[in-house]
């Protein structure tokens, strides 16, 4: 979806090219919400003609496909591009073959963001058809709405410099999911231009059991191979050719000491003893070491070849058991070179200039790598070659790739094909030390898998499954759970970082673990099994009423959209070769289904009204099973837990002070949250005309800065910022200045906060008469002062008032010395003509809370107004009198008539982020009135305690035929 590459090949139209009806087809400059008016017949004809013209261009362009522009995969973004590309091509009339740049929208008001107008604007500015990017964006949006015959787009707005932010309709999302469950999960498969790929695993040691060093290579490589196979790519799995010195060393030792022995009679254990003895002799005996090295460089006789083949067979058969347990299917291929004949490397002539001159062994290894590459490119005809080894071999592969480029075998054109090195970090123990092998502590992979099965079986027995299941079911489930836990722990971590093995964390039922994934999958399966007949009818039916499937609420929409992004995620995994992205997608899918189940789907009845729920459940089950397959995890259809994860939640408020200090291991996490700002002034005495003024126009800035003892750690946030053209209107002294959304910051015990205010104002009498003679004259003076922000005071004339000009320093080390558990506080900022009262709270063990509030009602025509505020409960230390208590509440939103809110909408909050003391609680207090009668139809509170696991909290405040849904997303500090 990147427009830059496509634009380089775009062809400019002739200057004398004339578009039919060009003047008629220019797009009117309309905003998102255009008032409806009587339809103009000529305008309707123009729209109809324009639609036909654009569709004809799209059809004609598709008749002669350009291979360079054919998309190699299907995804939700490509479905959007089918609508957006022709719309953009016609909006920018003088270009052909443009493609849109579409990416997920970073804010919740949209699903996707199209930035093509801004990216291509410099090229099209010369055409002179548009006044600016915003003008072009409006034309682009107009074309999209004309071409959208399927109802894909629910809302599309032009924001910023021509950016298009849009949301997909719930009806279209449901229809797309219905097509997927009818066609099968293969409908969402990637379509890649690669036909054949070779994937090299890290080969097992010739005489040693597979250890944890092989774990990440096999698991990561198998997942990438399965994703490519799901995309229709033929994948050939092979072992990476490593140094064969150990093999030569063992065969020489065996023939020298036991000339008449048969290697086939050796057990795997005896083979390990043979390796250790030969390694010891190689290190101590110089003559033996020289013979082994000569054997590597000069070749050997038939006895060595037979011994080598037998040793390799024993090692391969022993390792095959591990591969089967891990679900790895590697076919042994005939090597492209003879390891005992240095003169028979099957590769064309390699120029001497790229051979290594340092050491014969390095030169031979380098030649072997190039031989394998030449064989893969010219014999196997592979389009893509992937080597999955640890990151320490990165330099070796960079040299290898550079040499292949110099030979002309591959072309470096910025494409990831045909050669990729998939590096990964080491596997660590629970104490963050590397799991070592060979000469140090040996951690065999078979022992790790056995331990995982034993631990998993203990978890299942603890859940009472030994009494519910047969012994065979318990064994099979324990093996699937244990092996899946090991694989998922490897895959969910970024492959470039270290992976830590901790069975207690891996088998935890909370968080991003395989136990939580299996529980969610079993929960989905219980619904689909109970309604299997209805789901079969849903799959077979062709004329299903769309209204039965249309999604109805926020949870359904979030789950449905996430399901449609499955192919998009697979494309990203294949591009960057990072399997943890798929793990994150699967975990998010489980969380979204959990939210959907909690709020919508706890009770699934029968009839057409439940079709949309069954649609989402079946699609979730299909996508989850495909994710499990791609990750190499065997899905478990039975519930492995007695209780739903999180049903027995532990809260910080239930812990002792000692337990809190242990959880906040790096010391208490302090926080500062500004609640309210009150304006006090004496401007009445300064007004030239002694009559009362109508309002005060206030402009300026209030800013808070945090400073820690370490000067590199500081931050700031804006409390209030109004310029002269957009002043804040104050009608009376003592008015409250609503702070901006983010007025919370974290502190350390040695932190202080500096609050600076520079506020100015002018009075207004009403009726268009201002109190000063020439209001414009003071603008430059005020602007200069606000921009300079220096300590020298600029005296203004009497027509503009210095409401507040100064700063205050709050030392929280002194504050927490007297109030160790935190509490409330206030400070004053003075000016020539007034002052500000600032009310704040200081928090110990602070946790950040992101809030979402939605309004639902049984009647769609219900309209309400009112307010919702937040404060702390459980005897929080508010140090103030009762009359000032409300000043420490955080106003989430306040809507007065004639404004109102309607059901089904997520409310835009004034404050959506708050700091919450973990040892106390957060209380949401709401009061809503009916818009028509003014009667109170909802009044109540909802209390939230901070969970130790940081999981999301959801609560409801119910009223007369309506309710407020409050969602709190807790963000625990990193060190907790």
From TrEMBL:
Transmembrane domains' residue ranges: none
Asked if Membrane is a keyword of the record, the answer is no
The segment annotated Disordered runs over 1-50
The answer to whether UniProt assigns keyword ATP-binding to this entry is: yes
Q: Which SMART domains match?
A: DALR_1 (SM00836)
Q: Which GO terms describe its cellular component?
A: cytoplasm
The catalytic activity of this protein is classed by the Enzyme Commission as 6.1.1.19
Basic and acidic residues bias spans: 16-29
| Top-level lineage group | Eukaryota
Task: State the top-level EC class.
Answer: ligase
Q: Where is the DALR anticodon binding domain?
A: 517-639
Q: Which reaction does it catalyse?
A: tRNA(Arg) + L-arginine + ATP = L-arginyl-tRNA(Arg) + AMP + diphosphate
UniProt entry keywords in alphabetical sequence = Aminoacyl-tRNA synthetase, ATP-binding, Ligase, Nucleotide-binding, Protein biosynthesis
Q: What's a Gene Ontology MF term here? A: ATP binding
One of the GO biological process terms:
arginyl-tRNA aminoacylation
The family note in this entry says: Belongs to the class-I aminoacyl-tRNA synthetase family.
Descriptive protein name: arginine--tRNA ligase
Q: What is the protein's species of origin?
A: Artemisia annua
The lineage, from the top, is: Eukaryota, Viridiplantae, Streptophyta, Embryophyta, Tracheophyta
């Amino acid at each position: 979806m990147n427009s830059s590459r496509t634009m380089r090949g775009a062809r400019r139209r002739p200057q004398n090219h004339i578009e039919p009806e060009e003047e008629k087809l220019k797009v009117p400059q309309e905003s998102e919400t255009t008032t409806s008016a009587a339809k103009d017949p000529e305008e309707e004809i123009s729209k109809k003609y324009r639609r036909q013209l654009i569709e004809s261009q799209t059809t004609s362009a598709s008749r002669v496909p350009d291979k360079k522009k054919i998309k190699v995969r299907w995804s939700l973004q490509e479905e959007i591009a089918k609508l957006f590309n022709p719309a953009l091509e016609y909006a920018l009339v003088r270009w052909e073959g443009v493609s849109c740049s579409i990416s997920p929208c970073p804010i919740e008001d949209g699903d996707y963001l199209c930035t093509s107008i801004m990216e291509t604007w410099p090229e099209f500015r010369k055409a002179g058809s548009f006044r600016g990017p915003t003008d072009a964006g409006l034309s682009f949006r107009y074309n999209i709405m004309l071409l959208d015959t399927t109802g894909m787009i629910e809302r599309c707005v032009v924001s910023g410099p021509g950016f298009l932010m849009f949301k997909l309709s719930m009806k279209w999302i449901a229809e797309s999911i219905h097509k997927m469950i009818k066609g099968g999960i293969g409908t969402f498969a990637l379509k890649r231009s690669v036909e054949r790929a070779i994937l090299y695993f890290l080969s097992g040691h010739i005489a040693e059991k597979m250890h944890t060093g092989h774990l990440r290579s096999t698991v990561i490589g198998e997942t990438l191979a399965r994703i490519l196979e799901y995309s229709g790519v033929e994948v050939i799995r092979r072992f990476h050719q490593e140094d064969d010195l150990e093999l030569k060393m063992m065969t020489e030792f065996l023939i020298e000491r036991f000339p008449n022995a048969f290697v086939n009679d050796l057990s795997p254990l005896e083979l390990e003893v043979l390796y250790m003895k030969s390694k010891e002799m190689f290190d101590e005996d110089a003559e033996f070491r020289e013979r082994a090295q000569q054997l590597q460089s000069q070749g050997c006789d038939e006895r060595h070849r037979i011994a080598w083949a037998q040793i390799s067979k024993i090692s391969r058969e022993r390792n095959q058991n591990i591969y089967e347990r891990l679900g790895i299917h590697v076919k042994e291929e005939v090597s492209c070179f003879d390891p005992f004949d240095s003169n028979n490397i099957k590769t064309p002539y390699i120029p001497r200039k790229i051979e290594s001159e340092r050491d014969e062994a390095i030169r031979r290894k380098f030649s072997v790598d190039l031989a394998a590459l030449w064989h893969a490119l010219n014999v196997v005809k592979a389009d893509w070659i992937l080597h999955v080894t640890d990151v320490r071999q990165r330099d070796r592969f960079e040299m290898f790739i550079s040499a292949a480029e110099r030979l002309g075998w591959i072309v470096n054109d910025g494409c990831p094909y045909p050669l990729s090195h998939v590096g990964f970090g080491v596997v660590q123990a629970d104490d963050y030390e590397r799991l070592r092998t060979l000469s140090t502590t040996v951690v065999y992979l078979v022992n790790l898998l056995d331990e995982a099965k034993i631990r998993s079986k203990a978890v299942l027995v603890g859940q009472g499954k030994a009494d519910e299941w047969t012994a065979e079911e318990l064994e099979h489930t324990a093996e699937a759970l244990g092996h899946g836990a090991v694989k998922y722990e490897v895959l969910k971590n970024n492959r470039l970082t270290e992976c830590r093995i901790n069975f207690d964390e891996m088998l935890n039922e909370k968080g991003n673990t395989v136990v939580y994934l299996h529980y969610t999958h079993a929960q989905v399966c219980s619904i689909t099994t109970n309604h299997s007949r209805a789901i079969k009818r849903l799959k077979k039916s062709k004329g299903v009423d769309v209204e039965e499937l249309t999604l109805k609420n926020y949870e359904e929409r979030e789950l449905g959209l996430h399901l449609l992004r499955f192919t998009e995620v697979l494309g990203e995994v294949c591009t960057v070769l990072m399997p943890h992205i798929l793990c994150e997608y699967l975990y998010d899918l489980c969380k979204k289904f959990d939210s959907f189940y909690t709020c919508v789907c706890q009770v699934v009845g029968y009839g057409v009204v439940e079709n949309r729920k069954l649609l989402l459940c079946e699609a979730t089950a299909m996508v989850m099973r495909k994710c499990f397959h791609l990750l190499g995890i065997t899905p478990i259809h039975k519930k492995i837990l007695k209780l739903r994860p999180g049903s027995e939640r532990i809260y910080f408020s239930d812990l002792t002070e000692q337990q809190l200090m242990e959880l906040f291991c790096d010391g208490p996490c302090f926080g500062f949250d500004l609640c309210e700002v009150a304006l006090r002034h004496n401007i009445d005495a300064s007004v030239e005309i002694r009559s009362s003024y109508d309002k005060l126009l206030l402009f300026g800035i209030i800013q808070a800065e945090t400073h820690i003892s370490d000067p590199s750690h500081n931050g700031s946030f804006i409390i209030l910022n109004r310029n002269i053209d957009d002043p804040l209107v104050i009608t009376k002294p003592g008015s409250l200045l609503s702070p901006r959304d983010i007025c919370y910051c974290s502190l350390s015990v040695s932190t202080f906060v500096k609050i600076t205010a520079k506020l100015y104002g002018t009075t207004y009498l009403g009726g268009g008469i201002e109190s000063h003679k020439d209001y414009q004259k003071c603008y430059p003076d005020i602007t200069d002062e606000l921009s300079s922000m220096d300590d020298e005071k600029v005296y203004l004339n009497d027509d503009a008032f210095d409401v507040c000009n100064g700063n205050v320093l709050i030392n929280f080390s002194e504050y927490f010395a007297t109030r160790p558990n935190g509490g409330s506080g206030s400070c004053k900022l003075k000016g020539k003509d007034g002052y500000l009262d600032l009310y704040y709270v200081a928090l110990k063990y602070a946790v950040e809370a992101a809030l979402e509030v939605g309004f639902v009602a049984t009647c769609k025509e219900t309209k309400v107004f009112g307010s919702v505020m937040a404060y702390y409960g459980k005897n929080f230390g508010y140090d103030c009198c009762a009359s000032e208590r409300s000043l420490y509440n955080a106003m989430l939103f306040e809507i007065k008539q004639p404004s109102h809110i309607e059901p089904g909408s997520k409310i835009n909050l004034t404050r959506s982020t708050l700091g919450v003391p973990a040892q106390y609680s957060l209380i949401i207090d709401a009061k809503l009135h009916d818009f028509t009668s003014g009667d109170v139809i909802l009044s109540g509170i909802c209390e939230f305690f901070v969970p130790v696991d940081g999981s999301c909290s959801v609560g409801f405040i119910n009223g007369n035929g309506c309710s407020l849904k409050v969602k709190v997303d807790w963000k625990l500090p990193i060190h907790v």
